[in-house]
Amino acid sequence: MKTDHLLFGAAYYSEYLPYDRVEKDMEMMEKAGMNTIRIAESTWSTIEPKDGIFDFTHLDKMLEAAARHHISVIVGTPTYAIPAWLAKKYPDINEFNREFGLDYWSNCVNTWEDFPDIRGTINESLAAEFAKFQRLLVTRFLAWQAAIVSGYKRPDQFITQNFDYDWTDHSIGYQPEVNQYEAARCMTVAGCDIYHPSQSLLTGEEITFCGNISRSLKKDNYLVLETQAQGNIAWLPYPGQLRLQAYSHIANGSNSVMYWHWHSIHNAIESYWKGVLSHDFSENETYREAASIGADWKRIGTHLSNLQKKNRAAILLDNNSLTGLRLFPLKDLGNYSYNTVARWLGDALYHLNIEYDMISSAERDFSSYECLIVPALYSASEDLLTAISDYVKNGGHLITTFRSGFSDEQLKIYADTQPHILQECLGIHYDQYTYPVDVSVTLPDFMAHPSCSGHENAASDAGSSCSDESCTNSSKCLHWMDLVTCDTATPLFFYDHPVWKKYAAATVNQFGKGSALYLSSMFDGALLEKVLVHYFASLPETLLAHPECHFPLIIREGVNDFGKRVRFYFNYSGEKQTAICKGFSGTELLSGRKIMEQETFSLEPWGVVIVEEN
């Protein structure tokens, strides 16, 4: 969905205010350049205090005030926080399910005692099927709501949903409880909530990984409907970080940045999840930095909205494999097993400034991508595995890991040579695996240092020595290890262990017109980056568009509505960085100054430079 301007604002609930200050808040938002608020989604008991009795006072007041201050409103459907009267009306959850037509299986479930308790079941296939059923309920529920809203909305209005992500104490990856690709079908535009560490821990990794998921849901621009302003106590941003984060979202393809939320709440569990304003409602450093973003976007927003991205690599995501590795987790990772592997690969690409898309495992045609990355595809149908194999045979390049091609859609383990169907494509086989204990890997000299600082050309410098003492070419193996034997594949390196040393820890295989890299175990992310640099350098056309740049200097790019390339340079560190404008001359949008091709320029700590080509 295209927008004629960038959406900038916050979630806003007049119901939460300790006193009436709606008009003052709207004035401050307008002054800060904010143009959008999101309201109402957690207020069912306020809008319908009794069954069939409606009170739209708060809703009308906010809509009228927003209109006076030229602020657009996203109205949420108030469904996730049910009122007390509804809980009393439907005390039996199964009766509630029947009322909404949610009886999925052929036998009516009158009480939970009639159906085996899925919790603690020893049949993981049954547990996985129930998890799939739960995801289907979400898809149907959102489609039901969207159909109702569609009957009332104007053609110029949109329907969205703020999907969130798997969570530790912040967003980390693909959501296990929703099939977002299916659930997003009824939406006009995909929306999301992205939260992440800040201060010295701010990396931009979550913004990129989670944002890429949202961009892939409709294969279009998306909306960031929630992200932190001050956020949790440990997230209070350094000066410049709010700005860095906002432009990082836009560079990734978002058409909005909206904060959770406008002001800090004065009671209950989210009291210290701070908004743009603190508890005293006065202007503060976060508000003033937000206002500078709003002023920028009034001036240059049309040059940044609706950015189109054409990426050469994609990561394949699969809900059922996520569920499978929650039920059969990797060592020490528990429920986060799948997303840990996916983030291991995605973060390495990000550090190397390789932009990538996400694609659903429901797809079968991967030919538009030069490289397909498949993390821990534990559960896969034979037709999906065949499609991946054919992709390589026809000239694609595959990167995949341990735990791929292991079980079918019902988590039943395939009974032939592992990895199922992919063994010829990968040129390997294995029949044993274990947890790594006192096992490490060491990179050979030809790939030990190519991505380190000072190695401008990965292909020509591979094997050269490195003066960086922090650079290492060895790492402990982590969480899992396949004991891989090469058939037609070439081993890249082996396990460092007196017993397991004959088994390959990483392999590469030429198959048909393409190639495949297999990672038999996890190891340090810095080593993974070196393995990827070596592999990409071997391809007919390397994916390393900016081999001279590495995290914390991050480069993103897209094409704007004027048909011009826009390149973002981000400094994710507290020290100055330098960059070179390669490929075109242009105008730096924030300052208005001209930048020539091959010109070197500096980025301040946590700084941003945006160049639009001439």
Radius of gyration: 25 Å
pLDDT average, as an integer?
91
Give the strand line-up of the largest sheet. Answer: 11-10-12-13-22-21-20-16-17
Alpha-carbon distance between the two ends: 26 Å
- DSSP summary: helix tally: 16
3D shape: globular
β-sheet strand percentage = 15-25%
Which class of secondary structure composition applies to the elements?
Answer: alpha/beta
Low-confidence stretches: 95-109, 453-465
Overall helicity: 25-40%
User: What's the total number of strands?
Assistant: 30
Largest sheet: 9 strands, mixed
Give a description of the structure.
The protein is α/β, with parallel strands linked by helices. It has a 9-stranded mixed sheet with strand order 11-10-12-13-22-21-20-16-17, sandwiched between helices. Strands 3-2-1-9-8-7-4 form a 7-stranded parallel sheet, with helices on one face. The chain has a 5-stranded antiparallel sheet with strand order 24-25-30-27-28, covered by helices on one side. Helix 6 runs antiparallel to helix 11 (319-327) and helix 12 (337-351) packs across helix 16 (525-537). The radius of gyration is 25 Å and the shape is globular. 46% of the residues are buried.
Structural topology:
Layout: E1 7-11, H1 22-31, E2 36-39, H2 44-47, H3 57-68, E3 72-75, H4 84-89, H5 93-99, H6 124-150, E4 162-163, E5 166-167, E6 171-173, H7 180-183, E7 191-194, H8 205-217, E8 222-228, H9 241-251, E9 254-260, H10 285-300, E10 313-317, H11 319-327, H12 337-351, E11 356-360, E12 371-374, H13 382-393, E13 397-401, H14 423-426, E14 428-429, E15 433-434, E16 440-442, H15 458-461, E17 474-476, E18 478-482, E19 485-486, E20 490-496, E21 504-511, E22 514-519, E23 521-522, H16 525-537, E24 553-559, E25 565-571, E26 577-580, E27 586-588, E28 594-595, E29 600-603, E30 608-613
Parallel strand pairs: 1-2, 1-9, 2-3, 4-7, 7-8, 8-9, 10-11, 10-12, 12-13, 13-22
Antiparallel strand pairs: 5-6, 14-19, 15-18, 16-17, 16-20, 18-23, 20-21, 21-22, 24-25, 25-30, 26-29, 27-28, 27-30
